[in-house]
Amino acid sequence: MEAAMVALLTALPGLIAGPASAVVICLLAMYGAGYVLIKHVLPDQRESLNKVLADSHENRKIFQQAVEAIDERFKSMERNVSAVKKDVDKIERSISEIKMKI
To answer: Is this prediction's pTM over 0.70?
Structure first.
């Protein structure tokens, strides 16, 4: 029995430091990394993505309001330009009539 115990104790460091233990250590490390990824990193990424989407939605509303305001200003300018054009046309007609009389 004593010989078996000595053989086991002398073989144990070889088993712990051998290729099989390296595989077990790698598997444990991959499990730990996966656990940290799933429990901590991915939820933070999801929160960040949801925040970006919410901000994007707000920015879209602001952009749409700005475009509508610009459109209203443009329509107002079109009306003003149209009124000025009518006045210029009247002046041109008046000038033409005056030239014909001269």
So the answer is: no
